[in-house]
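Researcher: I'm preparing a figure for a lab meeting and need a structural model of a single chain. I don't have an experimental structure, so a prediction will have to do for now. The sequence is pasted below. Please return the structure as tokens so I can convert it later.
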Amino acid sequence: MKKIIILKATSWHGKSSTLVALARKLRENTSSVILIDETHPDGYDEFLVAQLADKRIGIITEGDLVAKDDIAYSLTRCLTLNTKVIFTASWNHGIVYDMICRFAEKNGYNVIETSPLYCATADKTTICRLNDAESNLLMSLINI
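Model: Understood. Here is the structure written out token by token.
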């Protein structure tokens, strides 16, 4: 079953940072083979495609409206590479969210929507721990 997991939330609520943590886990996993590993010119957002066992996994950390063309291009690249599981970020509604859902419907992907764990604190250690914890939960969605 092909699926797109959309991490939905408003700006600055942990969508991209959680997906960056997930990408880091795939890079560190000795069983995964990295096929594409790109960092956006902003120095933060990433696009990654990895082979893990019998599945290709894509991670698109961009989710804001200004990045809609980059997101569309990354989705197309995932499709070309026969990626079975795509993780992406999006606001709760709007142009990017609608584009991702249309892509999923057109290309036979089931959509799973979730949201990042959010902690309103200036303590970056706590936030990083939440991102790591949620990235573990997201990894479990690969095999369902």
